[in-house]
Each structure stands twice: as C-alpha cells, then as structure tokens.
Q: What sequence folds into this?
C-alpha cells in the first residue's frame, strides 16, 4: 500500500470526482483511477460506488477514508520530527478535545511552545468518547482533553487547572433569566436540551439520567444548543465556556446552584514513546497548571 495511492483516494473522497482529483494531484485521470483500483485490490474491497452518476464512497470507503487520512497525517508528522532530530524542535502535536474552558490551559502551552520553537505545528480536533482510545492507540492523537468522569484506566493523566461551570441557557424573557442561580427543582417539568455523554460531572450526569423523560433533545455539537433554545425547543444544560462563545443575543446563561462544575485532564498513552515536540508541549502544560495553582 503506497502513500501516493492513499493521497489519491483521500483527494477523490474529498472532491467527489476523479477528474477534479486528477487536476488537484497534477496527474491524468487514468493514473488516479489505476491508483484507486490498486488500493481496492490490496484491500479486497470496493471503496467507490461507480454504479450511478458521479463518485460516491461505499461504506467501506467511508471507513477507509478516515484511516487513510490518519496514516498520511502520521507519515507527515514522522518526517517532520525526524528531519529535526539534531536541530531545533519541530513536528506536529495533535490534540483531541471536548468542549471545555480547560482548552485555555492548553492554548497557553501552545503559545509557549511556538514562541520557543516556531517550527512546531498543532492541530486541535473534536473527539467523541467511543473513539478516543482507538485514536490515542493508533497515534492519530498525541494527547486528548477529557472530562475526569471518563474512565480511561491505564492512561497517563495530567489534571488541568481551569474548570467548567454548568448551568442552563434560557431566553431572556424566561422567569429563570432573572435568577442568580437555578437548582434542579427549578427545572422540574421543563423541556430540557441535554448534552450527550461528554458531560463531565457525575452528579449532573446522574440527575440527567434520573430525569431522562425531560431530556427529549440531545446535542453533541455545542453550537446547536443555543439555536435550539432560540427556536423555543426547550432549555439547554450547558457549560459556561460553550454558552459564552456561541450564545446569540436574547439568551441568558444561569448557573446551577449549588455550584456544579467539572474538571478535565490531559491524557496520553503511556505505552508510546513521546516525540521531542510532544515532550516539550507536555512540559509547558505542566508549567501552566503549576503556575495557576500558586
């Protein structure tokens, strides 16, 4: 399996056309077609559905496109890192993250690393709970920012200093908007828009589970929550970080009382040797967190 073939397939998957892919790759259409055919022969699976007009990925093709992107990313990172073994630190750090205010700790560390080593690149990617272990184990992620409530036994964990505070997002016209805080009793009987299992607070997660009849609408993309509230669907359980960044005018974030906050950690796979750039990044995160608790 050649990287050139993977690159051709990823481009075809993105643009949806052999012709457009050939233009982007600066090669002929027959060459692109041949590379895809050779990939399919190697895998023993069809990656493209050619039965209709245009090009569509088969279910296997959709799965393989994700794997191909990860392989190409890892290949580029490896070349970058080894090309700078005897010089300044370079390479790439890929960080998976949930929506959390703790990203600010990581952002400060990224700035410190890049100030010292301008050749370092960083990618932040949104992650889901069911894929994090696979992506850490496959080197698709260097690190991940996850709620402390997630059970990731066997992984190294560095607690981050910034915490998320949970509350409810309501229309300004709601009687709840005038409150300094709301308790769970205030929410009894209300239609709720609830986060999925990325909730990082055990008490809140238990309460949501006990009141699942009120949680008829679930979101896992935080930008959807304020849109749903604005449309009158219900009231969104959300953290202050998400509410502060994506709430349209006319909505108010009211904290839950007693204070309901959650903590997050930076995690990584201890069985994998960290690269120089990953070690430098980790050291900066430790420094940021140590400074925050002084």
A:
């Amino acid at each position: 399996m050649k990287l050139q073939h993977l690159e051709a397939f990823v481009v075809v998957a993105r643009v949806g056309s052999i012709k457009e892919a050939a233009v982007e790759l600066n090669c002929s259409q027959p060459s692109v077609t041949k590379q895809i055919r050779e990939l399919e022969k190697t895998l023993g699976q069809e990656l493209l559905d050619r039965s209709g007009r245009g090009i569509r990925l088969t279910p296997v093709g959709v799965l393989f496109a994700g794997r191909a992107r990860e392989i190409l990313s890892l290949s580029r990172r490896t070349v970058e890192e080894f090309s700078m073994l005897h010089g300044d630190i370079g390479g790439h750090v890929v960080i998976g993250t949930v929506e959390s205010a703790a990203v600010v700790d990581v952002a400060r560390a990224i700035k410190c690393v890049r100030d010292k080593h301008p050749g370092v690149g960083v990618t932040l990617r949104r992650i889901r709970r069911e894929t994090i272990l696979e992506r850490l184990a496959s080197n698709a992620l260097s690190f991940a920012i996850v709620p402390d409530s997630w059970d990731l036994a066997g992984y190294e964990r560095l607690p981050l200093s910034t915490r998320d505070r949970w509350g409810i997002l309501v229309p300004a016209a709601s009687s709840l908007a005038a409150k300094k805080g709301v308790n769970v009793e205030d929410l009894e009987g209300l239609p709720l828009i609830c986060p999925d299992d990325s909730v990082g607070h055990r008490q809140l997660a238990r309460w949501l589970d006990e009141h699942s009849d009120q949680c008829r609408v679930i979101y896992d993309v935080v930008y959807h929550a304020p849109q749903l509230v604005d449309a009158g669907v219900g009231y969104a359980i959300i953290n202050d970080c998400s509410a502060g960044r994506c709430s349209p005018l006319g909505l108010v974030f009211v904290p839950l009382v007693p204070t309901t906050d959650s903590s997050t950690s930076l995690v990584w796979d201890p069985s994998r040797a960290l690269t120089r750039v990953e070690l430098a990044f980790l050291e900066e995160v430790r420094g940021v967190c140590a400074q925050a608790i002084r």
